[in-house]
Amino acid sequence: MGNSTSDNYRDLSFWLDSLVGSGSDGLVPRPALPGDSYVDVAIVGGGLTGLWTAYYLLKRDPTLRIVVLEKNIAGFGASGRNGGWCSALFPASTTALERRHGLPGAIAMRQAMIDTVDEVGRVSDIEGIDCDFLKGGTLVYARSRPQLVRARADADEATRYGVDHLELIENPTASPTKTLAATFDPACARLHPAKLVRGLASTVERLGGTIYEQTEVLDWGSGSVLTTHGTVTAGTVVLATEGYGSTLPKTYRNVLPLYSLMISTEPLSDEI
Questions:
Q1: Residue 91 Cα distances to 4, 49, 96, 110, angstroms
Q2: What span, in angstroms and rounded, lies between the C-alpha atoms of 150 and 213?
Q3: Fewer C-beta within 10 Å: the chain N or C terminus?
């Protein structure tokens, strides 16, 4: 991967490609770490996890010296090429969460995820991050008897715990043919993920944080991060590599890199 122009990153995703020429900051990499450094907090990874961490730390204490270390550019990974959902959906039911972590933990988890959707919208608004945020909810159709059973079970579970505001719509009128029911979950928004992550990076810098791109992290220890451009000594080290932790010896087996595929097309006609 090159380190001089935005063209190197345009083909990574539709989202990143659509930033070029749109009046945004472009995709030209920020400077690399200039050498050994001493900070309060070193964050490894310039995706949404690392940047949100830097944002809230700086909002809480603007005097903190915070650096974000990124191998490529902010938003290079899943943060800049995901499905564009800001959702409280979770691959485990509230019942499963309660079974594993207890009722208070399950309720707290679900409430935190629901609140996060509105929080992303709130921060985007107050910080002037134009990420096309629109909260419209999630609509799931049940088109077979087994799907209908699951839809009713999901609605019953939501009622039982009283956190998710899931609505069951029996025999919806405005729906595809052969639809038996649908569930509507308001805790979901659509957004432009590359606009969000790049805008958040600019916000972190405006608040006083420093982002070093083109800086590969090789290892870390207690209070230090070794990179290809020097060592960062920090009071706190935050690992925000997510799936990319699989490329590092210390986190190799801790997180499973998992992906899904989506298709982006030209606008379709009503007939299609």
A1: 39, 19, 10, 12
A2: 46
A3: C
Say which amino acid occupies 50. Answer: G
- Closest of 76, 85, 84 to residue 244, by C-alpha: 76
pLDDT at residue 272, rounded to an integer? 82
Backbone angles phi, psi at 222, to 5 degrees: -75, 100
Rounded alpha-carbon distances, angstroms, from residue 271 to 8, 263, 267, 268 = 37, 19, 12, 8
Structure tokens at 196: 């969000």
> How big is the chain by its Cα radius of gyration, in Å?
21
pLDDT in tens, 239-258: 999 888 888 888 887 777 77
* Measured distance CA(5)–CA(239) in Å, rounded: 27
CA–CA separation, 234 and 212 (whole Å)? 15
Distance, CA of 89 to CA of 100 (rounded, Å): 18
Please give the Cα distance from 51 to 34 (Å, whole number). Answer: 20
CA 116, 121, 126, 130 torsion-angle sign: positive
Residue-wise pLDDT for 180-237, tens only, equals 999 999 999 999 999 999 999 999 999 999 999 999 999 998 899 999 999 999 999 9
pTM of the model: 0.89
Local structure of residue 39 (DSSP, 8 states) = E
Q: Is 131 helix (H, G, I), strand (E, B) or coil?
A: coil
Write out pLDDT tens, residues 92-112. Answer: 999 999 999 999 999 999 999
Query: Phi, psi (5° rounding) for residue 174?
Result: -90, 80
